[in-house]
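User: I'm curious what two different proteins look like when written out as structure tokens. Can you demonstrate?

Assistant: Sure. I'll show them one after the other, since each token string lines up with its own sequence. Here's the first protein:
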Amino acid sequence: MVSGAQDDESSIEKNAFYAKYADKIKKLQSSEPEVFQSRLDMAKEAKKNKAASYAQSAKQSLSDTPSPPQMKPGESQGQKSLDAIVKTDLLRQHSVEEITQIWKDFHKDKDYICAVIPSDTYSRMQEKAREFPMFLYPLPRAEGYEFFFAQFDNHCCYFTSVINYQAYQENAPALLTITHYPELQEEKGIVLMRGEMDTKLVSVQDAQFFANQLQLYYATEDAARQQLLSDFNRRPADFKHMDLIAQLSNTAVGLG
């Protein structure tokens, strides 16, 4: 899953990105969370305005080139309707296995990521997201690690890079939006997931890596990961971003 992971603290500190990000992360940890929330609100409002310029596409069951989803009354800004992508009533006529195959086939060879998440797994993710809405993720690069911030808002999780946030503050772009669709959760016991990214800055492979890490932190009960989530959201002075890299290294060793 991850290549080139460092094995000890000294090697981590020699990472090419270490000095650059250490100071930036400390500054971000001392910032008011409302600043980051403001950035997210602006990004979501921009998505909403862009979506409004498109004709309603919910009449189609599935489309090779889906239009941006439309907002529905009562939804939070940025929350997408499943009906903007598929005809939900038609999906309900299929079995879970068939829905899973339809969802995966629809996104195959497109610049999206997707998944079908069991209801109980998503419930755990939602519970932790309400408790720990923000987190930091290291993305392995050839020369080290690039750090990304993510924040949950209802059924969406927005990602932006630390570099972009430091440079643009509330105007920093959302580079990846992972949206969970709970419309079938009660009836079918599944939640559909789709990730949309700026492919100029985040590849499909990068987005899949983030989605995997998101589930590792929010859908599992690993004590070390839970401690990192808690420290980042509640005790930022105790949070050490080197621990994230160490955790990533441990994951790679486990997979090996």
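Here's a second, unrelated protein for contrast:
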Amino acid sequence: MLETVPTIKKLRAYAERIRVAELEKCMSKMGDDINKKTTRAVDDLSRGIVNRFLHGPMQHLRCDGSDSRTLSETLENMHALNRMYGLEKDILEEKLKAMAEQQQK
């Protein structure tokens, strides 16, 4: 469903920003003598946690007709996630930026 794609992208980007910030804090606490294997393990751990947390919301933003969720329920989920995580502001800013770019052409 194309209408939910911007929300999916914004939610994933929001989670990724948090993940990277927390990863950087963790790595700075661990010091400079951390080896690549440990660095990779901590990075993989943080990615895994984010992916597990996002799995449910992402499933509820996808509506391909193969499940019992209706289009209206999917849209309700999208609007709820936008409100809960403040994603509407980012989506609005993205739309305004695209409109401005088109006006310049």
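A detail about the second structure: Residues 5-30 form the longest helix (26 residues).
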